[in-house]
Amino acid sequence: MPSANRRLFFGLAAVLLLLQGPVAAAPFDDALAAYNKGDFAKAAHLFQQLANAGDAQAEHNLGFLYHAGKGVAQNDATAMSWYRKSADQGLAASQFNLGVMYQEGQGVSADMDQAVVWYVKAANQNNLAAENKLFQYYFAKQDTADAFIWVRKAAEQGDAGAQFNLGSFYFNGWGAPKDNKQARVWYAKAAAQGFPDAADVLKKLDAVK
After folding, report:
1. Banded pLDDT at 208 (limits 50, 70, 90)
2. What is the pTM of this model?
3. Which tens digits make up the pLDDT trace of 142-170?
């Protein structure tokens, strides 16, 4: 299991992973240093070596470089191949990226069912972006019960937008019984983070107590 220092790339679909684990720490650091200096070709070469040895985080970052076309020729199919190797090892960032690529048809035919499969895998590891993607997906389908599950998970992680949305769910009785007290709690959390309109909605809600 990687420690909390290593780094993953996030960009087009997600991020550059910034973590540093016990396996090949120095070469990973060298790859990151090259990336930060803008020497993407060297970064790609170093991540490739680590990825070939099965390092999940290097696989993710190499996937990102192919996805972004940094240091290598842009190739979504190759990016997806490396993301999948990393995702199959359980890396949530790669699972999320695969979901995005399936959703948007990058390197593969668009397939929302597959996107949801990967989003769920990532969300089950508390990946906030995946939780929000699932909320959006189920809300668009008017499946408020499942949308409520995922928006609450995102809200509980401190996402201000999700907190505002959860307040709206409680206020309107979407996916859960109408509960103005809970609505007020979540609107207040969003307002405390400066989320647009949250303070105004909270005032209006207080005015109709």
Report:
1. confident
2. 0.88
3. 999 999 999 999 999 999 999 999 999 99
For 73, phi and psi rounded to 5 degrees? -70, 130
Q: What does DSSP assign to residue 157?
A: T
Same domain for 150 and 61: no
Is 17 in the same domain as 104?
Answer: yes
Give me the sign of the Cα torsion angle 91, 52, 66, 116.
Answer: negative
Q: Is 96:119 a contact under the CB 8 Å cutoff? A: yes
- Asked whether residue 163 falls in the same domain as residue 73, the answer is no
CB atoms within 10 A of CB 206: 12
The label of the residue with tokens 């019984």 reads: 177
Identify the residue whose tokens are 């995922």.
150
Task: Specify whether 6 is located in the same domain as 108.
Answer: yes
Q: Which of 93, 100, 88, 70 is nearest to 6 (CA)?
A: 93
The domain tally of the chain equals 2
Looking at the structure, do residues 89 and 62 belong to the same domain, yes or no?
Answer: yes
Signed CA dihedral, 76, 82, 88, 90: sign only: negative
Same domain, 62 and 77: yes
The percent of residues above 70 in pLDDT, for the chain, comes to 88
Phi, psi of 3 (to 5 degrees): -80, 180
Q: Which of 125, 140, 166 is the last residue of a domain?
A: 125
Structure tokens at 81: 């191949």
